[in-house]
Amino acid sequence: MLSSKFRKIILILISICNLSLLAYTDNECLGSSYNVTIKHKGQPFGLAENILTVEKDVCILKVSHQQLKFLNKSWMIDVCREPVHIKGTKGAVEIIKKTNGCSSRSTDEFCGKFKTLRTLIEDDGLIFAEGNKENIESDHGKVYCSYQLLNAYLDRDFVFSSSRKYADVLNAKKKEVEVEVEQESKPIAPRPVMEGDSSPEPTPSAPVEPSESSDENNRDDQKLDPQTTTF
């Protein structure tokens, strides 16, 4: 009979093996096509229904969100197309191109749209989708695959190609380093020394005041001066 601890270890190893078998590759995620809809009760008072829909056809992702009947948003993103941009497809087509990197302090239109899109996928998709995120056949796996592709394309400017092989692109994380530059007073540079000039720069000396003894010696010299003495 196997001990309870040994059984637990075997179950853990089996679950790890199953997860590794279910985990999709970068190309499996990119090359997949699916349509997934996630619904959950939202505000106010849980009476309204929040609906997130993701339609994926290889490189093209269409994300739509409905909150109440009159708050609808939809976007289309082609992760294989340059330049990096988002298409707003609610009403007239609106194209928002990326011009600068996005951070928590960004205020431009592209970064605002991207932040809204990512927040909706996180709050109404990843949190409520059923299944295992490593299994691309589950609702959770489909939403997570879309989430990773959008982060790589919109946040890290990675443009995919359906004909290339990729590895560890989706799991890479953007390195954001914010450097605060502090202005400091610079010390005055010393006087440059020219070639052949080995002597240091002379420093001004204080004037020497004549002493009383030197005045008396001058008077004695004048008395003995033969040009001024008469016999």
How does this model look, in words?
The protein has 231 residues and is an alpha+beta fold. The protein is 31% helix and 19% strand. It is built from five helices and six strands, in the order H-H-E-E-E-E-E-E-H-H-H. It has a six-stranded antiparallel sheet, with helices on one face. It is globular and about 65 Å long. The chain starts with a helix and ends in an 8-residue tail after the last helix. 18% of the residues are buried.
Relative strand content: 15-25%
Count of DSSP H/I helices: 5
Please give the number of β-strands: 6
H-E order? HHEEEEEEHHH
Radius of gyration: 40 Å
If strands are numbered along the chain, what order do they take across the biggest sheet? 1-2-3-4-5-6
Give the overall shape: globular
What is the straight-line distance between the termini? 145 Å
Can you tag this structure with a few keywords?
231 residues, alpha+beta, six-stranded antiparallel beta sheet, 5 helices, 31% helix, 19% strand, globular
Provide a short characterization of the protein structure.
The protein has 231 residues and is α+β, with helices and mostly antiparallel strands. It is 31% helix and 19% strand. The longest helix has 19 residues.
Q: How is the secondary structure organized here?
A:
Elements: H1 4-22, H2 26-31, E1 33-42, E2 48-57, E3 60-67, E4 71-78, E5 85-88, E6 94-97, H3 109-126, H4 139-155, H5 212-223
Antiparallel strand pairs: 1-2, 2-3, 3-4, 4-5, 5-6
Helix pairs in contact: 3-4
